[in-house]
Design a protein that fits this description.
63% of the residues lie in helices and 0% in strands. With 149 residues, the chain is mostly helical. The chain folds into two domains: 2-72; 81-142, no CATH class. It is elongated.
């Protein structure tokens, strides 16, 4: 089981680093630093909870790891707000310049206990459109599409 988890995690990290290099969100040298750090920690990563704790530690030195951690969706359902935390922050920042009150209300609603992505999208259709416009979210947004009658 730990061997399978380790193999899957290695593959995810490799794909993640390739994407951040391809999209120019980090340099080759920075990706190499991240890779070295993760390789050092791999023997300690035997479960989801251990991996999450170690990634949180790595995240302190490499902010790029926030995206990987969110992409892994550790302990979350596809509809949980935490899965879309980065998108929520980005959308709120965009709206803030146009309508500060709306941005604050949106963030407050997103932070409410029990809030999920469907409810947030129903209340803020522009946010839902923002999510749908990002092709990286496509696999996770299937649950938001209305079911045919």
């Amino acid at each position: 089981m730990a061997e399978n988890f380790s193999g899957q995690f290695k593959q995810l990290v490799a794909m993640f680093l390739a994407e951040v290099i391809r999209s120019r969100r980090t340099s080759l040298a920075r990706a190499a630093e991240i890779s070295d750090r993760v390789i050092q920690l791999l023997p300690q990563m035997k479960s989801e909870s251990e991996t999450l704790a170690l990634l949180t530690d790595v995240e302190k030195d490499f902010e790029e790891m926030v995206v990987l951690k969110q992409a892994l969706h550790f302990g979350y359902q596809e509809t949980d707000i935490q899965v879309y935390e980065h998108d929520i922050k980005e959308y709120a920042a965009q709206v803030f310049g146009k309508d500060m009150s709306l941005s604050v209300a949106f963030l407050q609603d997103a932070a409410r206990p029990g809030m999920d992505i469907q409810r947030l999208c129903v209340k803020y259709p522009d946010f839902c459109q923002y999510l749908v416009s990002d092709p990286n979210n496509a696999p996770f947004l299937e649950k938001l599409k209305p079911q045919p009658a």
